[in-house]
């Protein structure tokens, strides 16, 4: 039975895991209450939010009495529980391809993007704060692996081997994306799907963050795909919800092909 009631999304910027359910809700035309959590202020580990998601990670969504976590599973729930355009392809092979890409992004490529992002952005953003306060904030993090990630980001302790492996995966992932988008208009099928929403949230800033690997000459299909997603009204509305410079990176997609 489908749940009824108000939808509230607990999210950070339109980016990565937060951006996935945000953009899905906009594409489906589902009205939702936005509850912004400032990840850099450690809002996600405060008692009010831990009462919603005891793991202390973002995003989470409530629908009536139901509490949902895990961004990709939330996207699939939103697609199935609400009217609006279907965002999982009806053809079984296309649906398999959509799930293949989402799994690849979530488990293999995403963590590498994330490690690079945490080392160049998250760590430096909080590093100058009072060390005792930072230590106390980290001690409040429920998941041990997130405590490790925060400590490494703050002290710049991701090893050269870890960073090199992340760069290797990013380069390989860009190659696979370019190849797939040379075969069809969208990532999984001939229609826009959750795989595109998932992929865009990780890859929208590629031309800015990896300009030597992703640009109009080397990866024309990736650039075509990113610009087509950025041009959608739902994407524009979603990215307007950004509050920091992180979300502004999407404007790189306003540039014309070289
Ligand atoms: N697998 C989870 C991962 C959630 C996750 O780790 N989110 C990050 C932000 S993208 C987070 O909450 N980080 C905060 C922290 O580690 O303190 C999902 O897809 O929802």
TrEMBL record:
Residues 5-86 form the GST N-terminal domain. Transmembrane segments: none annotated. SUPFAM superfamilies: GST C-terminal domain-like (SSF47616), Thioredoxin-like (SSF52833). Residues 91-258 form the GST C-terminal domain. Signal peptide: none annotated. Belongs to the GST superfamily. PANTHER family: GLUTATHIONE S-TRANSFERASE GSTA (PTHR44051:SF8), GLUTATHIONE S-TRANSFERASE-RELATED (PTHR44051). This is Glutathione S-transferase family protein.
């Amino acid at each position: 039975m489908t749940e009824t009631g108000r939808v509230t999304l607990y999210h950070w910027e339109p980016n990565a895991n937060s951006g996935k359910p945000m953009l899905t809700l906009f594409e489906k035309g589902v009205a939702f209450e936005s509850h912004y959590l400032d990840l850099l202020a450690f809002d996600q580990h405060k008692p009010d939010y831990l009462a919603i998601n005891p793991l202390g990670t973002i995003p989470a969504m409530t629908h009536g009495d139901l509490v949902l976590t895990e961004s990709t599973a939330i996207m699939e729930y939103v697609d199935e529980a609400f009217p609006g355009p279907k965002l999982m392809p009806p053809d079984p092979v296309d649906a398999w391809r959509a799930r293949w890409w989402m799994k690849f992004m979530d488990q293999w490529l995403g963590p590498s993007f994330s490690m690079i992002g945490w080392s160049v952005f998250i760590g430096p953003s909080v590093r100058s704060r009072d060390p005792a306060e930072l230590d106390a904030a980290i001690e409040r993090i429920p998941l041990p692996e997130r405590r490790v990630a925060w400590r490494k980001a703050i002290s710049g302790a991701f090893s050269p081997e870890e960073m090199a492996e992340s760069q290797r995966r990013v380069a390989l992932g860009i190659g696979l994306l370019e190849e797939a988008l040379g075969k069809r208009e969208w990532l999984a099928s001939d229609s826009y799907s959750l795989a595109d929403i998932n992929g865009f949230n990780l890859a929208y800033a590629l031309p800015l963050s990896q300009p030597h690997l992703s640009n109009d000459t080397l990866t024309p299909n990736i650039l075509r795909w990113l610009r087509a997603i950025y041009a959608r009204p739902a994407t524009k509305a979603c990215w307007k919800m950004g509050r920091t410079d992180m979300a502004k990176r999407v404007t790189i997609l306003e540039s014309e092909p070289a």
